[in-house]
Specification:
By secondary structure, the chain is α/β, with parallel strands linked by helices. The protein contains ten helices and 13 strands. Strands 10-9-8-11-13-12 form a six-stranded mixed β-sheet, with helices on both faces. A five-stranded antiparallel β-sheet has the order 3-2-1-4-5. The protein has a two-stranded antiparallel ribbon with strand order 6-7. Helix 7 crosses helix 8. The longest helix is centred in the C-terminal third of the chain and has 46 residues. The termini are far apart. The N terminus is likely disordered.
């Protein structure tokens, strides 16, 4: 198991992020007999967590498989450190699993703020940023875009202006991740009991930011100069304590963020299109060549960006396809489970005759 470098202090539950949302899920008996812990790393057959008494290792069972638990989750364990149940999260960041696997993958749970990290170079990609923003909106998590490598860019302000146009009231900060004051700049989102998550491509400076926030000295990787792509420094998700309070969840670099069940989040990011569409003559307007299309009229007048419309359509199609694929996979798994149960029941019944 990889060592998690967290000082074993006497954290209170509130300092760990426990709130009324989780307390309301506990019965009086559970309050008396069980121990709340917060997951800081998940392996296949065990997890590492932290509670009021410090560091805890928990072996997982068939009733609590690792696939159902994310970094940041709150769990209840008994006095022998056996898992009892996982509490419902207040927020959940999920994506469709990479590759051909039609399943959901948990990124992190119980996050308050999502730091979307990109850099002022070729890594900057508006379509990818919109995906992360939609992910945050669907989970009802605040999003802040961090533009790193601003100190070595002559056009940092242009990158910032482009990012700010992606969503109304979006906070975009330009940073030098190696600057000793960077932790102070991010302090408003890192208060006691608050949890942030770092997401973004490899090579944009997430590990450097993590080191600044936690005081760790994890090694970083160089990027390829031709396309600004980096190598993976973080290979698994983990939660660490921030120097001045709060918690940070680091995630492996993600270039392929496939959304599902994210329709509301997508529409929230592209709200100027949704607002314009409300004035279309026809309720089922496809915003192409229909008469009375307010969206196309706004594009003609320069009030809407035609490229934004195309990216919105693409995300909508992808989200619908991925959502249907996962729903179909779940249905197949359920039907297969029923068939297996029937076969086993028939075998048991035949043995009795």
């Amino acid at each position: 198991m990889r060592n998690i470098d967290i000082a074993i202090s006497n954290y209170s539950l509130a300092e760990l992020g426990f709130s009324a949302h989780f307390l309301s899920q506990l019965s009086l008996e559970e309050l008396e007999l069980l121990i709340p812990i917060r997951v800081i790393e998940v392996q296949r057959d065990r997890l590492t967590a932290i509670g009021e008494s410090g560091h805890v290792d928990v072996l997982l069972t068939a009733a609590n498989p690792s696939g159902d638990i994310a970094v940041g989750d709150w769990m209840l364990i008994d006095s022998d450190h056996r898992p009892v149940r996982t509490l419902s999260p207040k927020s959940s960041l999920r994506r469709r699993a990479a590759g051909t696997d039609a399943s959901a993958q948990l990124i992190a749970n119980n996050v308050d703020t999502l730091f979307v990290v990109t850099s002022c170079n070729a890594d900057f990609n508006e379509a990818r940023l919109e995906r992360y923003l939609a992910l945050a909106k669907e989970a009802e998590v605040d999003a802040v875009v961090l533009l790193t490598k601003a100190d070595i860019s002559d056009t940092a302000s242009e990158f910032q202006a482009k990012a700010e146009k992606l969503m109304e009231h979006l906070i975009v900060l330009t940073l030098n991740a190696t600057d000793p004051t960077v932790a102070e700049e991010l302090k408003p989102w890192c208060g006691s009991g608050q949890t942030i998550a770092l997401v973004g491509s490899s090579g944009v400076g997430k590990t450097t930011l993590l080191n600044a926030l936690t005081g760790d000295s994890l090694a970083t990787q160089d990027i390829r100069e031709d396309d600004a792509k980096g190598r993976h420094t973080t290979t698994s998700r983990s939660m660490r304590s921030i120097i001045n309070g709060g918690w940070v969840i680091d995630t492996p670099g993600m270039r392929a963020l496939r959304l599902f069940d994210n329709a509301e989040g997508i529409d929230a990011v592209f709200d100027e299109i949704i607002e314009a569409a409300a004035s279309c003559r026809f309720a089922d307007c496809l915003h192409q060549n229909e008469p009375g299309c307010a969206v196309q009229a706004a594009i003609s007048q320069g009030a809407l960006d035609a490229e934004r419309l195309e990216r919105w359509r693409k995300l909508q199609r992808e989200d619908m396809y991925n959502s249907e694929s996962i729903a179909e996979a779940r249905k197949r798994d359920k039907q297969f489970g029923k068939m297996v149960n029937k076969v086993m029941s028939d075998k048991q019944r035949n043995k009795g005759h």
